[in-house]
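Q: A reviewer asked whether we had any structural model of the full assembly, not just the individual parts. We don't, so I'm hoping you can provide one. Inputs are below.
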Amino acid sequence: MIYARPNLAVLPGSSGVPELVTLGAGQQERLGSLIKMISTDFDYVIIDTAAGIGASVLWYNQFADHNIFLLSPDPTSMTDAYALIKLLCRDYGIDHFNLVLNFVRGVREGKHTVETINRVTQRFLKLKLAHLGNIPEDTAVRRAVLDQVPFVEQTPGSKAARAIHELAQRVHTLI
Amino acid sequence: MPAARHPFRIRRAIRGGCCYGILSFVLTAIPAHATGQGSLGGDRLFWVLVWVGVLIVAAFFGYVQQNRMVQRKTAELRRELFERQMTEKELVAADQKLRQSLAEKEALLKEIHHRVKNNLQIVSSLLYLQEDYLSDPKGIEILRESQHRVKSMALIHEQLYGTTDLARIDFGRYIEGLTANLFDAYGIDSSRIRLNVRADDIRLGVDTAVPCGLIVNELVCNTLKHAFTPAAMGTLDVIVRMLSPGRMELVVADNGIGMAESPAENEKPSLGLRLIHTLTAQLDGTVSVDTTNGTRFSIVVSTPEQPKKES
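A: Here is a predicted structure for the entire assembly that you could use as a starting point for your response.
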């Protein structure tokens, strides 16, 4: 575990290691108890899962207290999110999901996207999703990625950084 | 405006940064003496250039606005695409699930009918085996009659699992099978007693088919046992027809010796006749007998409305 900032520790995963994607039952149990152990020292433990409906994604999601789906307004991203929500709802009995819209071009687009996905989930899953907020499309994010620094630190006044702060406030109310 | 070159640069990034436009043009104010025209001509040229500039700026903003609208519409269409795709997927999945469930239930129902038929055949076989332990002809006859009744019910279940419609049977086809079985069971030579079966295309559910089958079974058995003397020739007509929607007539008629209009005072009515009257009453029907030329039983019963034929 790496302390990136005084109150922010990161337990990095790895890219291109198939074992991390296909954890066995014993490994899942060990990782689960490790996360539980770590969580006693922190206020929040945020697990950033891969996209899709892989076994590890499902496992992390059923393990979490709150499920937040980060999606863009593109149909492919919405379809991925819907597939995972459907699986978690139908097979794991999870009935509360939160949405965060990324790369949105304006509040209206975010609102319409959430309304669209909600129409589908309400019709077929009898489920209403909560909308936590939007992260607008912002060139500051791209610059920060290229410079490999957090955009909330590099350009704290940017639209995306402000949206992240608002989002953090809303996530805080979830707990 | 002083005589000089005045470069203008309009820069407009469409929100979101996916479209970025820079338009630049130069307004050149030329002194009147250089054009050889008076100050009036210079002013006119200036205003022409101003208007051209205004038009270019308006066109540019129009383009930007249109671009925005296209983006907005594209986003709307993408959302609609997602909604339609998901709806289609869900409906296809639901349809597949329903079909699968229906196929499973049909298989189960066929299996149930098959087992009921097998069990009824076992009962019939048991009755047959018990005949060996009886020496009294009357007792043997009673067991055989019971066998026929059980077989008539087994035939309905056999037909139900052998066809695609698991709820109804083709009653005409059933009557043909039933009467043929009874002719075999009583060892009747079909050249001696001619069998005529005429049936409308009638589909009956188990609830109606079983009592109707038992009624026809009793009437045909009765005819085969009593209507004809051993060497006599004759005909047996079995007619099944719809009189009106919901009313069906079963006719079993022979040209044999005829039956007594009413049993003797001390004679107990046979089980067969009691069954006919009880089952007819159960189907809200009536029994009429005509003995003027042989015996003609006409039974009118209520049947549930016939399903419309698929075109």
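A: Points you may want to mention in the reply: Confidence is low (pLDDT under 50) at residues 13-21 of chain B. Residues 39-131 of chain B form the longest helix (93 residues).
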